[in-house]
Structure formats: structure tokens, C-alpha cells
């Protein structure tokens, strides 16, 4: 925590202001009080002196105007006596001067030598001439102390007969003032110490809760809300502390709610199957969930704070501003030659209440499968229409020819009719095949399974082909002797085998050999039909099981195929829980094999 500078701290401000206040107050009081006191003391001093001087002048006047006989003591002796009577400790000297001659006629000082001399003192002369009392504070040259020097005229019947000149010790008054000043100074010092202490204490009562609150605020910025400010009293600061504590509680609650919302949002995002990306208002990615990272094949760290248009690979077609305007979903095609991969992106703009754009949320959806299905469907419809159109156009032309008179020609007419017949059959076969496929697609069929000894069943089918074949092909059977019981739907498997064998015969050359085999494995049997025909190119080995797929369209159509035979076979074998595949060496021959689930029972071994 940063410390507050010395002179900026409330603590010190308080103390300094307090001390200054007291100092100023004491100064004002002190100056006023001391001056007044000094004046009063001086007045008192002069007053008491004046009374004594009045008495003295009266006595001396009495002596001066007295009628003296021969035996009476002289004026000087009487005055000396009077002065002795009036002597006081605070008076250093009293002189009496005769008005007519300005001669000193008496002194209280021990040095009586000056009696009879003329006075040189100007003050005395002035007070005699002006008939006025004069007093002044002077510094005694000998002692260096302050003295009160006063000359008073002595009046008798309204005439000045002389003057009294006295020097009084006034230093006492000043000493008294010094004492009082000292007392005042110590008082001030003590008051200052007390106010300083009080100031510190008072400042503490204010600063302690404030420092406490500051500490709490700092703790809050670090996310610690458990702290509480101590409430020291019920004053304004105490109320502030209570409000502060309330604020802390509210903040904690708000923080907890936001945290909860955040956690909810992040779990929603991570459990979503769709990809989600969010950007800030400049279009930089600030959030990406795992599915999105996976779909875009990027890592979260590299993508964060990158522009979204480049992350989803749209930087050439779109700017971020375009995305904000985009109402429809955008298709992102990441397909490569070998693998289709298509995403659909929907964008929604996050707006503040003010209408300002705060960012964009992009939701990505993998639509590869859907697109593939759509494409297949389109292709399928195109294929079907094409397959139907070919026989129909052939038939139309033949029928037209017949209608235009060919029916009369005994040689051509049966020929034409035969062709229309085969084309019709072909179409019926095609439609039947399609119906069968569509049934299998919608699972609208049931297998009538029975336990069948497979080699016997297979032999029977081969026999039928052997009997009816017109081509010159040699049949070679490699069937096991023992019984192999499998649970199959005979009709369906007959269809499968018919198709495979007829293909083999169709593509076999003159004198070629067709080999039939059944192999027994752990949990399945493998049925194969191999020929020595043209073979299938390696790339097409899997495709021959697709609907309408034919390696060489022109040639196969001549042979009467529609390209649905192996597709149906595949569906049926799969329905039995088996697999079907093709192996081939181009020009050398083809092997079509399929497997069927098989449980070897002990009975089989026995027989
Ligand atoms: P259909 O069986 O409907 O009358 P098809 O025989 O042409 O017509 P499929 O049985 O599905 O259709 O075969 C698909 C394609 O696979 C054939 O057109 C052919 O090109 C190729 N094919 C199938 N079996 C063989 C084989 N034994 N030798 C060479 N090519 C084959
Ligand atoms: Mg076929």
C-alpha cells in the first residue's frame, strides 16, 4: 500500500492546524493581556507614588513656609528630617529644590554634599517654571536598571516655592511582568502539548476507519470479500463504514452471480455439439469452444484475438462489417479432393441497448453428412430418371415405327415387338429393384430366417446356373464336405448369389473359369465367387456396391445391367450381419466375397 506523504496525511494536518490555532489564540490573548496588565501595573505604581509625593510636598511646604526663630533648627535640618520620615525602600533618592535659587535644599541620599548646590537637572527647572509635574522612565546609568524619575512642583498659596525630585525603583514592575510572561509561555507550551496529543487522537479516530476502509477496498480488488470494516461509532464515519460493509456484501453477491453465470455459460458452450465463436466489437475472437476449435482444426491459443474472418477463412469474401450485415447463414466449404467437409455458419450481432455493436457470435454446424445425403439423393433421382428414360425412348421409337406400318412387315414386326418386350421387362426389373432397395432403406421388411446347411444350398444354386448356361465357362466348386449350418433367409441369399454369379458370368471371357468357395472361420464363413474376367479397376472396388454404379456404363448397359444388383446384395448381406467386398486384378479376374455369421456347434464337429 502506498504511504501518504507526511504533510498530506490527515494525521499531521490535524495536529499542525490544531497547534497553529492554539498558537495564534495564545499570541493574541498574550499580547493583549500583557499590554493591559503592564499598563495597569504602571498606573498603580504611579498612583501610589503620587499619593506619597502629595503627602511629602505638603510636609515640605509646611517646613518651607514656617516662621523660624533663632533656636529653631534650620530649614535644611527640618527637610532632612521630613525626608527621613518619608523614606521608603522603593525610592532611591528624593531631592528638594528651592524655587527661587534652584538650589538643592535637601536630599535623602547618603551623600549630603550636594545640598546647597544649584541643580542642573532640566526636568526640575521645567516643572518649577511650568508649575507642572513631570515623570519619565529612565535607565539608571550606574545599575543599568529602569527607574522612575519624577519632578513635582511644591505649591504654596498658588505659588511655586520649590520642587521635589525623586527617583523610584520601577524595575519590580517589569520583573513582575516577566514572571507573568513566563507563566503565560509555559501555559501556552502545556496547552500546545495537550492539543497536539488531542489532535493526534482525534485524527486517529478519523483516519483509522478510513485506513481500514482503504485496506478493504484493496482486498476487494484482489477478490477477497470476506473482510469487514470495523465500525467504531455511530457518527458519520461509522455510518460510512456500515454503508461500506453493505456495499461489500452487495458486490460479493453480484460477483457470485456473475461467476455462476459465467460457469453456466462455459459449461453450456463446452457441452454444445455446435461450434461457437464470439468476438469483441472489432471482430477479434474472444471466445471459442472446443467443438469450434475441433471443426476449424485450430488451437484455442492461436485463435484468440485473431480476426474472425481469417479464422473461419472468409477474409477474401467478407470483412467484419459484412458479417454484421449478413442475415443468412454462410456456407464454409473446407472440402478437399478426398474428403468433403462443409460447415454452415450463422452470425448474430451482440448489441448494446444504445445500438452499438458489441461483437458477433458465430455458430458453426457441420453439414457434411447432410450435404452428402442431399447430393446422393439428387444423384439417385437423376440416375433413376435416366435409367427409365433410356428404355422408354427405345420403346417409343420402335412403337412409332410399328404404328407407321412396320407391323405389316412379317420379319421386322416380331423383332420390334420382342425388343419392346425386353425393354419393358428391363424396366419392370429396375422398378422392382428400386422397390426392394427402398423397402430395405425404410427397414420395411423382415428376414425369414431358417437354419440351412450352406454348402448344400450353394450347390443347388450353382447347379441351376450350370444347367441353364449358354456361355462356355467352366465351373469349379471348392465347397467343404461337412455340414455348415447358418441361419439365413434363403430367398434373399439366393438373390445375392444370383447376382454375384450372373455378374461373374457376364464379365467372364469365353472359356473362362468361375470358382465357388466357402471358407469356415472362427465366427463366420466366407463365400467367394471368382472369375477370370476383365476385373475392376482398383479405385472402383468399393464403388461397385453403390447404387447405379457401373464401371463401364456403355458396355454394361449392353449387357442389360442397371447397376443395382451389388447394391441390393450389400444391403441384404448387411441385414444378415455380414460384410461384402470385392478384390480384383484388372484384366486377370475378380473375386466377390461375403461373410455370414456362423457359430460352430459341436454337432458340426461330430458329423
Ligand atoms: P444388374 O446387376 O442390376 O443387372 P450390373 O450387373 O451392371 O446390373 P451390379 O451387379 O451392381 O450391376 O454391378 C455393378 C458394376 O460392377 C458392374 O456394372 C460392373 O461394372 C462391375 N462388376 C460387377 N461384378 C463384376 C465382375 N465379376 N467382373 C467385372 N466387373 C464387375
Ligand atoms: Mg449384376
Report the mean per-residue pLDDT as an integer.
88
Number of helices: 16
Strand content: 15-25%
Number of domains: 5
Q: Profile the largest sheet.
A: 5 strands, antiparallel
- Text of the CATH class of the largest domain: Alpha Beta
Q: How many angstroms separate the termini?
A: 96 Å
Task: Give helix % range.
Answer: 40-55%
CATH H level, superfamily name of the largest domain:
PAS domain
Widest sheet, order of strands: 2-1-5-4-3
**Bound small molecules, which ones?**
adenosine-5'-triphosphate, magnesium ion
If you consult CATH, what is the topology of the largest domain? Answer: Beta-Lactamase
Explain what you see.
The structure is a single chain. This protein has 5 domains: 11-176, 2-Layer Sandwich (Beta-Lactamase), CATH 3.30.450; 230-267, no CATH class; 272-366, Beta-Lactamase (2-Layer Sandwich); 372-441, Helix Hairpins (Orthogonal Bundle); 450-606, Histidine kinase-like ATPase, C-terminal domain (Heat Shock Protein 90), CATH 3.30.565. A hairpin with a 5-residue loop joins strand 1 and strand 2 (104-107). Strands 2-1-5-4-3 form a 5-stranded antiparallel β-sheet. A 5-stranded antiparallel β-sheet has the order 7-6-10-9-8. The protein is rod-shaped and about 220 Å long. The protein is 50% helix and 19% strand. The protein starts with 9 loop residues before the first helix and ends with a helix. Helix 1 (10-65) runs antiparallel to helix 4, helix 10 runs antiparallel to helix 11 and helix 13 packs antiparallel against helix 15. The protein has helices at 10-65, 75-86, 122-130, 171-221, 236-271, 290-296, 300-303, 308-311, 320-325, 368-403, 412-441, 454-468, 490-507, 553-558, 565-575, 602-606; strands at 91-98, 104-107, 134-139, 146-156, 159-169, 275-279, 285-288, 330-333, 342-351, 357-366, 450-453, 474-478, 485-488, 513-520, 524-531, 580-585, 589-597. It has 607 residues and is an alpha+beta fold. The chain is built from 16 helices and 17 strands.
Amino acid at each position: 500500500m502506498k504511504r501518504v506523504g507526511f504533510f498530506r496525511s490527515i494525521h499531521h494536518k490535524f495536529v499542525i492546524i490544531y497547534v497553529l490555532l492554539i498558537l495564534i489564540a495564545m499570541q493574541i490573548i498574550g499580547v493583549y493581556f500583557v499590554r493591559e496588565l503592564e499598563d495597569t501595573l504602571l498606573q498603580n505604581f504611579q498612583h501610589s507614588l503620587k499619593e506619597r509625593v502629595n503627602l511629602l510636598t505638603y510636609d515640605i511646604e509646611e517646613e518651607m513656609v514656617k516662621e523660624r526663630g533663632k533656636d529653631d533648627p534650620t530649614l535644611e535640618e527640618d527637610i532632612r528630617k521630613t525626608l527621613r520620615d518619608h523614606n521608603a525602600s522603593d525610592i532611591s533618592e528624593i531631592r528638594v529644590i528651592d524655587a527661587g535659587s534652584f538650589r538643592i535644599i535637601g536630599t535623602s541620599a547618603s551623600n549630603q554634599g550636594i545640598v546647597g548646590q544649584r541643580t542642573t537637572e532640566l526636568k526640575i527647572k521645567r516643572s518649577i517654571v511650568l508649575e507642572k509635574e513631570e515623570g519619565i522612565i529612565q535607565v539608571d546609568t550606574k545599575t543599568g536598571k529602569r527607574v522612575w524619575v519624577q519632578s513635582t512642583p511644591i505649591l504654596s498659596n498658588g505659588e511655586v516655592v520649590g520642587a521635589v525630585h525623586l527617583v523610584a525603583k520601577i524595575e519590580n514592575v517589569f520583573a513582575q511582568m516577566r514572571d507573568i510572561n513566563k507563566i503565560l509561555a509555559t501555559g501556552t507550551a502545556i496547552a500546545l502539548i495537550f492539543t497536539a496529543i488531542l489532535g493526534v487522537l482525534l485524527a486517529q479516530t478519523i483516519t483509522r476507519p478510513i485506513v481500514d476502509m482503504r485496506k478493504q477496498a484493496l482486498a476487494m480488488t484482489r477478490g477477497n470479500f470476506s473482510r469487514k470494516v470495523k465500525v467504531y461509532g455511530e457518527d458519520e464515519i461509522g455510518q460510512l463504514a456500515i454503508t461500506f460493509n453493505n456495499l461489500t456484501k452487495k458486490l460479493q453477491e453480484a460477483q457470485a452471480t456473475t461467476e455462476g453465470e459465467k460457469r453456466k455459460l462455459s459449461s453450456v458452450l463446452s457441452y454444445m455439439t455446435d461450434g461457437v465463436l464470439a468476438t469483441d466489437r472489432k471482430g477479434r475472437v474472444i471466445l471459442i469452444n472446443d467443438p469450434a476449435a475441433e471443426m476449424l482444426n485450430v488451437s484455442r491459443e492461436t485463435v484468440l484475438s485473431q480476426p474472425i474472418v481469417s479464422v473461419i477463412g472468409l477474409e477474401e469474401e467478407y470483412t467484419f462489417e459484412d458479417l454484421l450485415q449478413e442475415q443468412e447463414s454462410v456456407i464454409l466449404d473446407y472440402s478437399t479432393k478426398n474428403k468433403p467437409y462443409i460447415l454452415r455458419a450463422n452470425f448474430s450481432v451482440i448489441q448494446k441497448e444504445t445500438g452499438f455493436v458489441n461483437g458477433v457470435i458465430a455458430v458453426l454446424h457441420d453439414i457434411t453428412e447432410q450435404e452428402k445425403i442431399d447430393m446422393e439423393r439428387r444423384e439417385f433421382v437423376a440416375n433413376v430418371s435416366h435409367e427409365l428414360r433410356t428404355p422408354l425412348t427405345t420403346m417409343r421409337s420402335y412403337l412409332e415405327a410399328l404404328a407407321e406400318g412396320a407391323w405389316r412387315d412379317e420379319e421386322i414386326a416380331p423383332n420390334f415387338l420382342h425388343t419392346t418386350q425386353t425393354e419393358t421387362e428391363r424396366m419392370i426389373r429396375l422398378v422392382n429393384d428400386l422397390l426392394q432397395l427402398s423397402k430395405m432403406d425404410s427397414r420395411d421388411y423382415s428376414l425369414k430366417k431358417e437354419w440351412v446347411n450352406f454348402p448344400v444350398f450353394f450347390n443347388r444354386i450353382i447347379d441351376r446356373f450350370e444347367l441353364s448356361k449358354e456361355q462356355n465357362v467352366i465351373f469349379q466348386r471348392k465347397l467343404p464336405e461337412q455340414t455348415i449350418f447358418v441361419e439365413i433367409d434363403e430367398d434373399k441369399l439366393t438373390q445375392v448369389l444370383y447376382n454375384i454369379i450372373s455378374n461373374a458370368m457376364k464379365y467372364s471371357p469365353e472359356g473362362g473359369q468361375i470358382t465357388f468357395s466357402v471358407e469356415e472361420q472362427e465366427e463366420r464363413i466366407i463365400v467367394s465367387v471368382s472369375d477370370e474376367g476383365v476385373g475392376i479397376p482398383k479405385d472402383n472396388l468399393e464403388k461397385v456396391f453403390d447404387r447405379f454404379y457401373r464401371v463401364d456404363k456403355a458396355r454394361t448397359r449392353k449387357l442389360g445391367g442397371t447397376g443395382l444388383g451389388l447394391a441390393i446384395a450389400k444391403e441384404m448381406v448387411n441385414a444378415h450381419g455380414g460384410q461384402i467386398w470385392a478384390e480384383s486384378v484388372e484384366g486377370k479376374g475378380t473375386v466377390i466375397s461375403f461373410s455370414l455369421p456362423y457359430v460352430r456347434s459341436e454337432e458340426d464337429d461330430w458329423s
